[in-house]
Amino acid sequence: MSDKDYTNNEEEEIVEGTVEDTTKEEKKDKDKKDDDEYEKVCTICHRPESTAGKMVDLPNNITVCNDCMQRSFDAMTSGQYDLSQLLNNPNVQIFNMGDMEEQIPKKQKLKKKKEAADVVPLVDINNLPAPHKIKANLDEYIIGQEHAKKAMSVAVYNHYKRVATNTMDDIEIEKSNMLMIGPTGSGKTYLVKTLAKLLDVPLAITDATSLTEAGYIGDDIESVVSKLLAAADNDVEKAEQGIIFIDEIDKIAKKKNSSQRDVSGESVQQGMLKLLEGSDVEVPVGANSKNAMVPLTTINTRNILFICGGAFPDLDGIIQERLMKQSAIGFGADLKDKYKEDPNILDKVTLEDLRNFGMIPEFLGRLPVVVTLQGLGEEMLVSILKEPKNAILKQYQKLLALDEVQLEFNDEALHAIAKRAMKRDTGARALRAIIEEFMLDIMYEIPKDDNIGKVTITKEYIEGTGGPIIKLRTQNVESIATKGKSENE
Fold it and tell me: What distance in Å separates the CA atoms of residue 183 and residue 309, rounded to the nearest whole number?
């Protein structure tokens, strides 16, 4: 090998070494920049820098607050124990301080707060979409529920106008927290998700079934705010302008005829009052309950929009009972079964009905906007299948288009799917489960045969009395699939 080859090899090694060093330095600078965005947390007491004050930096990225450092010095200088004999104690072990470096995970570190003048509202009042534009955007994804979409558009618009102006004068605008009532699968959660996506604000979705009074097994009430903080990447300013959706709110209704303490019912409602109204609350960072090993931070819930939703089973019976009591006696009296089959019975709900269900008046008073959603009928389910931007049928058509196969559904097939979904009584959620059932064989068989160019789903295939219509790429004549569910029977 010539001297020139040695020289080239040495130059390549130098270049590779330089690139590796540069990469390491860039990574180190990036990690340092990321660490600068987050507050330091005391390794001993787990308090953040905003609460404990300036930290003392030790080797291996260990930080200790002044209080813990002073207690350590006091313990060493008190003279109660001879430190020279410390290692002779069999109960004392030497540990590596480097192991403490990753003791506090990143999800439990807070982003540094900005100065008051630098805090910018997440939604600019000049760019805030008007209620009719919000509803128009919701119409692209959600079928029906016109009254609910209109009420939520106005409530969200007014709330973020209030956040953006931040009380410019002595007139303080109250919060527009919402209570959504509707059967399962009617679109409560999907409405909230679409709203948060449109406004580009942090959203935390939680359910009330796991919430208990402080001190009992279960999630603390403040954990709903800690989930919003996690959704905002531990940025307190961002989280204080987000949306919290609490599902299954009917599960914390006051228990009837109970002799024991209601730790997951009325007590939870009372504990949530300060959250809904707007106050400074201490929430655990990166955990569902407060304990000594989890750092705490203070969040003001004044500008957080709370939306509570629930199916409220048997509420329609309470409404019917009230309406029948109001009916008069005589020729002008209402028929006894007038309200029994009323599909819009939830529209007639009042606060009195919700109190009889088990919700306390103080809780209902902090949810001024009550929105009702109707159950989904056959025509509405058919529209849900094909009309929204991300309709279920469009999703499967896209999947088969990747295999260069065209997928179509007859109108009769769509109505057959909707009828089967109504029998399951789980709303729009049943649609996907039904489609998954009959699309399984098609999704399995199509990749086997490259000649298949088009598949049409028929009513007979949905009902199990026939098969889908398959058109081959080389044929202009449609042929009925020989493999139907009827043969399997």
Answer: 10
CATH fit for domain 122-310, picks 3.30.70.1150, 3.40.50.300, 3.30.450.20, 3.20.20.370: 3.40.50.300
Tokens of 283: 């929430």
Of the candidates 368, 326, 327, 372, the residue with the CA atom closest to the CA atom of residue 346 = 372
Tokens of 175: 């919060």
- The contacts found for 167-170 with CB under 8 angstroms, 24 or more apart, are none
Sequence ranges of the domains in the chain: 3-108, 122-310, 378-488
**Which of the residue ranges 59-73, 139-153, 247-261, 346-360 would you say has the lowest mean pLDDT?**
247-261
Report CA torsion sign: 25, 27, 33, 35.
Answer: negative
End-to-end alpha-carbon separation of the chain, Å? 77
Separation of alpha carbons 207 and 222, rounded Å = 13
Closest CA to 147 of 390, 369, 377, 428: 369
Q: What is the pLDDT of residues 225-261, one digit of tens each?
A: 888 888 888 888 888 888 999 999 998 888 776 666 6
**Rounded-to-10 torsion of CA 201, 229, 367, 148:** 30
Q: Kind of pairing, strands 305-310 and 178-181?
A: parallel
- Chain segment 26-44, per-residue pLDDT in tens: 554 554 445 566 778 887 7
Q: Where are the beta strands (DSSP E) in 230-366?
A: 243-247, 280-284, 296-300, 305-310
Indicate the class that CATH gives domain 378-488: mainly alpha
Q: Tell me, letter by letter, the H, E, C secondary structure of 35-59.
A: HHHECCECCCCCCEHHHHCCEEEEC
CB neighbour list of residue 329: distance below 8 Å, 6 or more residues apart? none
